[in-house]
What does this fold into?
Amino acid sequence: QVQLVESGGGLVQAGGSLRLSCAASGSYRRIFAMGWYRQAPGKERELVSIALGGGSTNYDDSVRGRFSISRDNAKSTAHLQMNSLKPEDTAVYYCFLDTPAGRSWGQGTQVTVSS
It folds into this structure.
């Protein structure tokens, strides 16, 4: 069983920065990918960024160039550095972890960007 604990959300003004962290614990043999989805009120959950096991990363077009994902394999953690935040980035951000057993989710952390 895998547990994910997220941290780092909060309230920030437009143009500001936040750093989300996701710490994984539990039993798993291999990490295929880690990343974040987000869900704004009244909208579907969307993939923000993903870091694959081989080291490659990908981003939604709306955040590319502003967000940066990184992984610390030794600590089983991932971080999402979010710069130049916009009000439309306001959402609950959910960390996820893909292993051979399937996908696990974090509890979600609120990010609110004021204009």
The chain has no helices and eleven strands. The radius of gyration is 13 Å.
